[in-house]
Write a structure and sequence with these properties.
The protein is mainly β and 93 residues long. The protein contains 1 helix and 8 strands.
Length: 93
């Protein structure tokens, strides 16, 4: 069964750009392919399901996606942000 979801995204920062990328976790270890030189997740290799790209401080965006059951990670892929802990997992049942 597929789940259609709407993400309303707000960049609450007062001085930094952020984004939100949705990727399904497929491996048992829950890691994403990370390019240490670029300091970013390789979105193509990770299989991005969609994103709200580069939101300036204080701006809003939205993303509607259809997801199958599983575990997903929502993360900011601005250089260094994912490694700094700007991610969270969600489960679609």
């Amino acid at each position: 069964m597929l789940c259609r979801g709407l993400f309303d995204v707000i960049n609450a920062s007062t001085d930094s750009e952020h984004e939100m990328v949705v990727t399904k976790l497929s491996g048992p270890d829950g890691t994403l392919p990370y390019d240490t030189d670029a300091m970013r997740v390789d979105e193509e290799a990770a299989g991005s399901k969609g994103e709200v790209s580069e939101l300036p401080a204080g701006e809003k965006g939205a993303l509607t996606v259809t997801l199958e059951p599983g575990t997903y990670v929502l993360y900011c892929n601005i250089a260094g942000h994912y490694a700094a802990g700007m991610w969270t997992e969600i489960t679609v049942k």
